[in-house]
Specification:
Helix content is about 45%, strand content about 15%. The protein is an alpha/beta fold. The structure holds uridine-5'-diphosphate-glucuronic acid.
Length: about 450
């Protein structure tokens, strides 16, 4: 099928390449010249395992190209909207300007039978509004909503072999039939592999996405709330998570207590959901998300408190080695990153912060040029008074406490991801502090 993908960020770039790989004829459209040049050369504009290989392979088929000219979308049957919906400045709400602009720019190039497919994360009700705009324009195109669940770091796998597919179809049967047929064509390979498919209406499809992210955020903040209780009772939040996670109804995944969630999705999505619920007169229904957000942000302070405590409450001039800057491993994304936030705030307290990350230094430097970034692990920890793990890259998870101990000035470690065995570090003479661990 001929497919256009409007917006070639994390979501769009991976989706465009995956669509081409699956046999479709794809044009990706974006305004960012640097990003387009990289994608055209078959290079990933951000760190995503497997994406460079996928881009090279998909480009070599001749079925994948990128342009800044939206008129290239003309002739495609399916037009994916994959632009960003960041948090509005000074508000919890999502900024829909890029989605609205994408639709306006696409309108003149639509013809009857085309299907515009929303993938961006939007406030519930957006699809109905956009569908009305498309109908008003009179091209005969229809709109479907098809949320995306890919995780950074696993985006290629999640795009080629998703764990579920959701079609939010228009209310009119004729439009719904056109949209469903087109989407079935696009996802033929995944559907043939019996990927679960949920066919529903616009509102449900929009809500599936924010509800899933709200649930994941709640699960993380739940265990972090338990960690807060553990901290005043001597309980161990990781053992607690192991034990409750054995209940099949609960499950162990996303019960990792630590410095909390970040990234370009979970934080802004729960805030956007709260803002939308307020608009709908149902603010109280998701008021708990305010607590989810608050618990999450408190965990960053807890890490800082541990560091300050280990420095005898005199952080000024002390050397702190921060391991990790990305919001999670396998990503160079520092949007709303707890790790970068901790590094910046420790620096604000007067500590000599040295920060490192296998992939995210350049992105972190763009946001916070004032930090001292080191590419070498040894240089980061040499002479440190405290070592802080905030992003659990494999490079840091399997450290030998004796080897690191020989480099530092003080054997003090704050394990912001509960990644280490406390007994092993203590046996090597370290003062170990985890989160919600005795
Ligand atoms: C998240 C969702 O998992 C995807 O399904 C969704 O498609 C995506 O948002 C999106 O909306 O586009 P992602 O932001 O890539 O994906 O990251 P996650 O793997 O969900 O991790 C989010 C944060 O939670 C990270 O900072 C991670 O360190 C933290 N986390 C995760 C914990 O603190 N504890 C855990 O147990 C698990």
């Amino acid at each position: 099928m001929r497919v256009s993908v409007i917006g070639c960020g994390y979501l769009g770039a991976v989706h465009a390449a995956a669509m081409a790989q699956l046999g479709h004829d794809v044009v990706g459209v974006d305004m960012d010249a640097v990003k387009l040049a990289a994608l055209t050369r078959g290079e990933a504009p951000f760190f995503e395992p497997g994406l460079p290989e996928l881009l090279v392979e998909a480009s070599s088929t001749g079925r994948l190209r990128f342009t800044d000219d939206i008129s290239a979308a003309k002739g495609a049957t399916v037009h994916f909207i994959a632009v960003g919906t960041p948090q509005l400045k000074g508000s919890n709400a999502a900024d829909l300007q890029y989605v609205d602009a994408a639709i306006e720019q696409l309108l003149p190039h639509l013809t009857a039978g085309d299907v515009v497919v929303g993938k961006s994360t939007v406030p519930v009700g957006t699809a109905a509004r956009l569908a009305a705009r498309i109908a008003e324009h009179g091209s005969g195109a229809v709109l479907a909503w098809n949320p995306e669940f890919l995780r950074e770091g696993f985006a290629v796998k999640d795009s080629l072999a998703p764990d579920r597919i959701v079609f939010g179809l228009p209310p009119e049967p004729a439009g719904a039939a056109i949209a469903e047929a087109a989407l079935r064509g696009v996802y033929a390979a995944a559907l043939a592999a019996e990927t679960p498919l949920v066919i529903t209406n616009y509102s449900t499809a929009e809500l599936v996405k924010v509800a899933a992210n709200a649930f994941l955020a709640t699960k993380i903040s739940f265990i972090n709330a338990m960690a807060e209780i553990a901290e005043v009772t001597g309980a161990d939040a990781t053992e607690l998570a192991d034990a409750i996670g054995l209940d099949g109804r609960i499950g162990r995944r996303f019960l990792g207590a630590g410095v909390g969630f970040g990234g370009g999705c979970l934080p802004k999505d729960i805030r956007g959901f709260m803002a939308r619920a307020e608009e709908l007169g149902r603010g109280e229904s998701v008021a708990f998300l305010k607590e989810v957000d608050a618990i999450n942000l408190r965990r960053r302070q807890r890490v800082i408190d541990h560091v300050v405590d280990l420095l005898d409450h005199e952080p000024f001039g002390k050397t702190v080695a921060v391991l990790g800057l990305a919001f999670k491993p396998h990503s160079d994304d520092v949007r709303d990153s707890p790790a970068l936030d901790v590094a910046v705030r420790l620096k604000g307290l007067g500590a000599e912060v040295r920060a490192t990350d296998p992939q995210a230094i350049e992105n972190a430097r763009r946001q916070h040029p004032q930090l001292d970034y080191r590419t070498s692990f040894e240089e980061t920890v040499r002479g440190a008074d405290v070592v802080v793990l905030v992003t659990e890259w494999d490079e840091y998870r399997y450290l030998d406490p004796e080897v690191v101990g020989a480099l530092v000035s003080g054997r003090n470690i704050v394990d912001g991801r509960n990644s280490y065995d406390p007994a092993r570090w203590r046996a090597a003479g370290w003062t170990y502090r985890g989160l919600g661990r005795p």
